[in-house]
Specification:
The protein has 361 residues and is mainly β. The protein has one domain: Jelly Rolls (Sandwich), CATH 2.60.120. 4% of the residues lie in helices and 34% in strands. The protein is built from three helices and 20 strands. The strands form three sheets. The chain has a ten-stranded mixed β-sheet. Strands 3, 5, 6, 8, 13, 14, 15 and 20 form an eight-stranded antiparallel β-sheet that branches. It has a two-stranded antiparallel ribbon with strand order 1-2. Strand 1 and strand 2 form a beta hairpin. The longest helix is centred in the C-terminal third of the chain and has 6 residues. The protein is globular and about 45 Å long. The N terminus and C terminus are likely disordered.
Length: 361
């Protein structure tokens, strides 16, 4: 699978097409009277489960993995598809977030010229709104990424990822939302800033007459640190009826709302590469018609670390570091906002005991 186009940048006929970016705009603070997720919903699910202990048994939870047990070969018992060369690119690590109650994470290594990294993919029960919360860390010498974590829906759900890059969804068979690190032609240091690289039925066509994912950029770019764990959470909410543009997307970084895409927000100009969310100015967004068939549900997660030489070239890297490592931990998919892990390790830094993560349902 090869996808050369990155968010915000495409070279067609020698012409660089670059999305406009808003740099100095801030999200309005969330009033103290609102629940912590900023959407008017209930408080974080993680508050009920300090250290995430027992969170897999909550009725709102669709899938979890904390990578606390088993071998690399055992991953295929939980995840429906494990990328090729798993034994070479996947490994368990003792590097975990400070707040984690466990002692293992999953490390994924991509080596330019040898492989493009690795992935884990799973289906779960289809729902109209889903959240995925995960912790991730990029190595201190990590370069630019091509694609990262994706949450979305297929009808029917395949046993492995099938994005069909370059084609527009019909509205009844797939809808994909990637949380992608984007460098914008080297404008931002590697691995870049967070954006949502999105495929849906009303996406715009690119200059080369293909439908590459449209990037939705937050008003305030979120630079991704290297060598530091971050808590990232994505919400995807399907439109309530086939003719209503009330679908929503939201992104949180370390528990703070970074972007909320919904009907009526201010946006910059549309292009085949997407648009920028604005604090003010621009024009109101017409809304997201993520499906035209209510049978299309959110039903899969694709945990991906995909690096290639194309991402380095497009970001003007002359001598890229060939080895790029990423860690993942404490993955939770839920029908309600999860939020960062609550509580902390006891004195002495020893992890609290916690059960093996639950399988998807």
């Amino acid at each position: 699978m090869f996808r050369l186009v990155l968010c915000g940048i495409m070279v067609v006929g020698g012409v660089l097409l670059s999305q406009r970016w808003a740099l100095a705009q801030e999200q309005a603070p969330i009033p103290a009277t609102k629940p912590a997720n900023g959407l008017g919903d209930e408080n974080p699910l993680a508050e009920k489960y300090p250290g995430d202990v027992g969170i897999e048994r909550d009725p709102a939870v669709l899938f979890t993995d904390n990578f606390e047990a088993g071998t690399i070969e055992d991953l295929s018992r939980k995840w429906q598809a494990v990328g090729k060369d798993a034994g070479k690119v996947l490994a368990f690590s003792e590097d975990v977030p400070d707040s984690a109650a466990g002692h293992r994470s999953i490390e994924v290594t991509g080596t330019l010229g040898q492989n493009s990294g690795g992935y884990l993919y799973t289906n779960f029960r289809g729902v109209d709104r889903a959240f995925v919360r995960f912790y991730t860390k990029f190595a201190p010498d990590h370069g630019y990424e091509h694609h990262f974590v994706e949450l979305g829906g297929y009808q029917p759900a395949p046993p492995w990822p099938n994005p069909r890059a370059g084609s527009r969804p019909a509205g009844n068979e797939r809808m994909l939302v990637f949380i992608d690190p984007v460098g914008v032609y080297g404008k931002y240091p590697p691995p870049g800033v967070w954006q949502l690289y999105t495929y849906w039925s009303e996406m715009k066509i690119s200059a080369d007459r293909h439908y590459w994912g449209n990037c939705l950029a937050p008003a305030e770019p979120q630079q991704i640190p290297r060598g530091k764990w971050q808590c990232v959470e994505l919400m995807v909410q399907m439109n309530s009826a086939p003719d209503r543009r009330d679908g929503e997307l939201a992104l949180w970084v370390d528990g703070k709302l970074a972007m909320h895409v919904r009907q009526g927000i201010r946006r910059g100009p549309w292009s085949g590469m997407g648009f920028d969310v604005l604090k003010d100015g621009g024009e109101p967004f017409e809304g997201l018609l993520l499906r035209n068939d209510e049978r299309l549900k959110i039903n899969h997660l694709w945990l991906e670390h995909y690096v290639d030489a194309g991402a380095q070239r497009q970001n003007r890297v002359q001598s890229p570091n060939p080895v790029n490592r990423v860690w993942f931990d404490d993955v939770v998919v839920s029908t309600r906002y999860v939020g960062p892990i609550q509580g902390s390790k006891p004195a002495g830094g020893q992890p609290n005991p916690r059960p093996v993560s639950a399988s998807g349902r």
